[in-house]
Amino acid sequence: MLVDLKEIACGAALRRQSRAVQIRYRDKVVVVGGDAPVVIQSMTNTDTADAIATAIQIKELARAGSELVRITVNNPEAAQAVPAIREQLDRMGIDVPLVGDFHYNGHTLLKDFPDCAKALSKYRINPGNVGQGAKRDTQFAQMIEMACLYQKPVRIGVNWGSLDQALLARIMDENSQRAVPLSAQTVMYQALITSAIESAQRAEQLGLPGDQIILSCKVSGVQDLISVYREISKHCDYPLHLGLTEAGMGSKGIVASTAALSVLLQEGIGDTIRISLTPEPGGDRCKEVFVAQEILQTMGLRKFMPMVIACPGCGRTTSTVFQELADDIQSFLREQMPVWKTQYPGVEGMNVAVMGCIVNGPGESKHAHIGISLPGTGESPAAPVFIDGVKAMTLRGENIAQDFQKIVLDYVQTRYSPQV
């Protein structure tokens, strides 16, 4: 029976309307919110006082695709190093805006090190860590005053691991007076959201323009993050920074971050993201940038680099040839992108298929811009290549990998060269 279908919607919901915040460094402007695409950011894990090591890691993150890079500013040595880091980046031709991450003593560091305050393009303030009691309001105000003085946008970043205890106590007291008290979980959510929005409103009262404020409410549980951001998105129009805090290591951190952020992004919630992965010892810090890019690209929200489509392998593909070729092509494409994205506009939307046998190989290769179907176990030792859906040639011999890589390069140079 033929099923009678209406038009089936595909794609994420329309983005939630928010203010547009401009984060600047010289001529470089990164817009968060408004009509801008979702922005990717990352954070260094070097000692900020080591200006050279920090600048090198920032360069690596920026070249990987991080559009904002956050650095810890936790002591006078770190604050003193920030201008040197900026100068080193300038010498390397890296114009990525820097975000200063402040906790506990940010009011002092911004006041005592004005060159640091000027060199940063944005400040991150955690309202739960700006001071206790009467000092809290004073020290928060001092940081906002510095942001106003130097015309810097601010992310007010609430974290459930460092929630303002006085505010939490106030909300718990109010909840206890309800005829039917809310659950402890809901009270925690309410405290996070209230802390963020009340802090933003206070910043505006102190003179910081509303279009220079970004909010975040970070938690480490997937369902908690989804619930909190669904709710805060209903109560304000500030741009929202998404991220699962303390996501974890390896596949756990990747899966948890992807699960949480994908749901929210699909619902149109979120203006900038960071994937907080714990790196393996000696691991590549840029991995969090690659994961962020892949989330946005696989969801169809942005394009960063050509995507490699490859089959998972089965009993028909006992040879590892297609796995090795897929890995080689993936590495080749990523290595070329810093140059290609300036020379070949649109190449980031290319799809390359590397398939392992005749079952789905030709079909998937035809759907890709360029694809190769390698022989499976017992199949004829030939690899047909498809270009824009049409079989173009068949590769044989021991140099299939090198030959296919050259075909991909030729395709890019021909298909994506700008019109003269």
TrEMBL record:
Recorded metabolic or biological pathway in which this protein acts: Isoprenoid biosynthesis; isopentenyl diphosphate biosynthesis via DXP pathway; isopentenyl diphosphate from 1-deoxy-D-xylulose 5-phosphate: step 5/6
Cofactor(s) needed by this chain: [4Fe-4S] cluster
Domain IspG C-terminal, first and last residues per copy: 308-408
Record keyword Cell inner membrane present: no
UniProt-annotated binding residues for [4Fe-4S] cluster: C311, C314, C357, E364
The reaction(s) this protein catalyses: (2E)-4-hydroxy-3-methylbut-2-enyl diphosphate + oxidized [flavodoxin] + H2O + 2 H(+) = 2-C-methyl-D-erythritol 2,4-cyclic diphosphate + reduced [flavodoxin]
Entry note: cofactor: Binds 1 [4Fe-4S] cluster.
Family matches, as InterPro entries: Dihydropteroate_synth-like_sf, IspG_bac, IspG_bac-typ, IspG_C, IspG_TIM, NO2/SO3_Rdtase_4Fe4S_sf
A GO term for molecular function: 4 iron, 4 sulfur cluster binding
Pfam family, one: GcpE
Top EC class of this enzyme: oxidoreductase
IspG TIM-barrel domain sequence ranges: 30-292
E.C. no: 1.17.7.3
Keywords on record: 4Fe-4S, Iron, Iron-sulfur, Isoprene biosynthesis, Metal-binding, Oxidoreductase
GO biological process entries: isopentenyl diphosphate biosynthetic process, methylerythritol 4-phosphate pathway; terpenoid biosynthetic process
Protein purpose: Converts 2C-methyl-D-erythritol 2,4-cyclodiphosphate (ME-2,4cPP) into 1-hydroxy-2-methyl-2-(E)-butenyl 4-diphosphate.
Family that this chain belongs to: Belongs to the IspG family.
Protein name, as recorded: 4-hydroxy-3-methylbut-2-en-1-yl diphosphate synthase (flavodoxin)
Species this protein is from: Undibacterium baiyunense
This protein's encoding gene: ispG
